[in-house]
Amino acid sequence: MKIKFKIHIVIIAGLFTLNACCSKEDLAGNDIGKFIFLDSIGNNIFFGPSKSLNRDSIFIKNGNSGYQKLTINANDLDSIILINFNYADTSYIKFSNNDIDTFSLTYEVITGKTSAGNCKLSVVVLNGIKYNGTALSSDFQNPIKIYK
Q1: Are 131 and 102 in contact (CB under 8 A)?
Q2: Nearest-5° Cα angle at 125, 62 to 105
Q3: What confidence score (pLDDT) does residue 28 get?
Q4: pTM, to two decimals
Q5: Of 32, 44, 89, 116, which residue is 20 to 30 A from 65 by alpha carbon distance?
Q6: In what order do the strands lie in the sheet with 90-94?
Q7: Could you tell me the strand order of the sheet in which 144-147 lies?
Q8: Pairing of strands 144-147, 32-38
């Protein structure tokens, strides 16, 4: 009886350990773009003294969802706008002047192993963005400049 009980405990502990090493926390997906919107001469259109549009009136529509107000966590010193695309293939951005532009997005599945090397994990990451049909930089670590 004691041996069976010990075997059950070892099996349960092993399952918990395996589950912990296979946690998705080790690999994070990315569907967020960082953007700076500029006018044709390089002035930021949402921040600073030359702004021409209201940053509090930007709306985003991902896929088939309705438009939702984009939350801007920034001040005049930080001109980066973060957009969470929610893994949609097409998103629309609507500005305070009722101009609507299109983001076309592509994603890639990346597979890796945990730091212990025991578990194979997959994650979806953003790997391509087009803005109104024009391909943008694929350097997603830095803000992408968009000229309007």
Answers
A1: yes
A2: 40
A3: 66
A4: 0.75
A5: 44
A6: 68-69, 59-62, 90-94, 100-113, 120-131, 134-135
A7: 81-84, 32-38, 144-147
A8: parallel
- Using CA atoms, how far residue 85 sits from 77, 93, 106, 115, in Å, is 24, 11, 11, 28
User: Alpha-carbon distance 32 to 26, whole Å?
Assistant: 18
- Interacting residues of 66 by C-beta distance below 8 A, sequence separation 6+: none
Amino acid identity, position 137: S
Retrieve residue 87's tokens. Answer: 């893994």
Three-class DSSP category at 109: strand
Give the Cα separation of 62 and 1 in Å (integer). Answer: 58
Which pLDDT belongs to residue 5? 40
- Mean pLDDT, consecutive 10-residue stretches, the chain (148 aa), reads 43 41 58 92 90 91 91 70 93 93 94 75 90 93 92
CA proximity to 142, closest of 66, 56, 36, 63: 36
Query: Cα(142)–Cα(148) distance, rounded to whole angstroms?
Result: 19
Q: Which domains, and CATH codes, for the chain? A: 23-147 (2.60.40)
pLDDT of residue 103: 97
Amino acid 118: pLDDT: 73
- Contact at 8 Å (CB) between 1 and 109? no
Count, residues in the chain: 148
